[in-house]
Amino acid sequence: METLVAIGASDRPPIVSTISDPGTSLPPVFYEDHINRAPTTQHLDWTVTADDIRPDGVLKRVYLINGLFPGPTLEALSGDTLIINVTNALHDVPITIHWHGIHISNAMDGVAGVTQCAIPPGSSFIYNVSIPADQSGTFWYHAHAGLARADGLYGGLVVHAPASAPDVVSKDPQEKDMLLLIGDWYHQPAEEVMEWYMQPESFGNEPVPDSLLVNGAGRFNCSMAVPARPVDCVEQHTMSLPYLHPGEGTYRVRIANTGALTGLTLTFENLDVTLIAVDSIAVDPLDAPHPSSLGVLYPGQRMDVLLRQSAGQVTTDSSSASALKIDLDEECFKYPNLALTPTQIFPISPPLSTPSQAQEVKPTSKNINIHKIPSPHHIQQTLPPNPSTTAVVYTKIQKLAIRHNAPYGFFNGTSWLPQREPHVPVAALARELWDENQFGHGHHFYILSTHESLTGWGSYNPFTTSSNPSSQSKSDSDLDLTQAMLRDTVYIPRRGHAVLRFKADNPGVWLFHCHILWHLGSGMGMLVDVGGYHDTNGVSGEVCSV
């Protein structure tokens, strides 16, 4: 079946877009407006609505914040406080907003059924997002109730470090900041996609996306629409890419994967590329190679790169023009979607004389795997050599006859559902009232090791054969603590494992889950209780109305 995917999708000619200034609806990021000021409190009012729009030419009902898709880009300074009044003006969909990657208080984490009741239609909720003084980088926000993230309820969040802060990346006076929100896109409403996935007829195959969006815009070849899924499509012959002119200086490009399923590989042609951060954590640019392509960037993950014009490039020669190529990773595509063009190319200034010239982008042997980047800091600088607590979590998708052969996600044999009786956020309940079917949020973690088994299922046992869980683990002693990277979203290989370590210093009940939306929707989540259930950390105990 994977061979069918390669034939049906990978061999299709890429979609080649043209650019026209000033770019998409997302404005440039202006770090100079923030780095020399003192921390402050920003007050914002957001209204969430929905409208029928054509992000890639196909009509779809999309969630908007203040009339925008994606939602407004938030810019802040380390130490700022964001007071955001979110009003749900939808008719029948409850919502929450989660601030992905921010070390936030538990009550403001925005997870329906865990840290708050979902905001019902016609109601409002005030988020107090207090950004730590020591946190900066590229983040994003998105819905965390139901499946609204896949229907457009998301946006960018950039936190600038003050000019006085030590920074491994010195600011070029001509440096420009740009945000790219890139992700897969489905033409059907997310609820319908999820309903199909949870049927036995899906055989547990995750739904393959139909398209690709960059900052809320894309191009879809209307002639490739599948007859079984008719769409209202208008051909969009041009698509704007944000204002990139590498010949005018250095760009810091902040990239977030906002998709529901698919990883991304980005290829930059005729540009010098330096990876400087992953998941808002700095990578020492002196040690980072200068590849042409980077990946795979999985849903929820972010990376920051510096782009400079390659030495000797002639900017007036269209044959040497720069281009960005985005490849959707087909690892999770278990059946062919003939509507999808998984490779798309976007010229970068100077404009090409004709779109076809962009197809001269050549494969490159220079690639950097962002999951193999070593940390610039030794893990023992902040954590002890050995953990105080060790836990094992087994994850899988399983089809059981008792559940009508639908593909449910499991952590340690349980599938996550929000609290039912009483219908109160779990973080506000005494432990004895928790449902049994019970990381992640609120913390970054060190990735000590990842492993993918080429045959069989692979294994990892952190305990010795003495059956004493508290004894020294032979496996732990083999881990290289000098190379561990600090992240907030990790890719766990199929039939493999990841070994993580984190400091439990942010009290509350935190959701630990798969960021593939269809897996989370089928139950692949669990809770981590930090600090004990007696401390609700400001979470309201009201009974939820939805």
TrEMBL record:
The keyword Metal-binding applies. Pfam families: Cu-oxidase (PF00394), Cu-oxidase_2 (PF07731), Cu-oxidase_3 (PF07732). The keyword Iron does not apply. Coiled coil: none annotated. PROSITE patterns: MULTICOPPER_OXIDASE1 (PS00079), MULTICOPPER_OXIDASE2 (PS00080). One of its GO terms (molecular function) is oxidoreductase activity. Residues 48-163, 177-308, 441-530 form the Plastocyanin-like domain. Keywords: Copper, Metal-binding, Oxidoreductase. Belongs to the multicopper oxidase family. This is Multicopper oxidase-domain-containing protein. It comes from Aspergillus taichungensis.
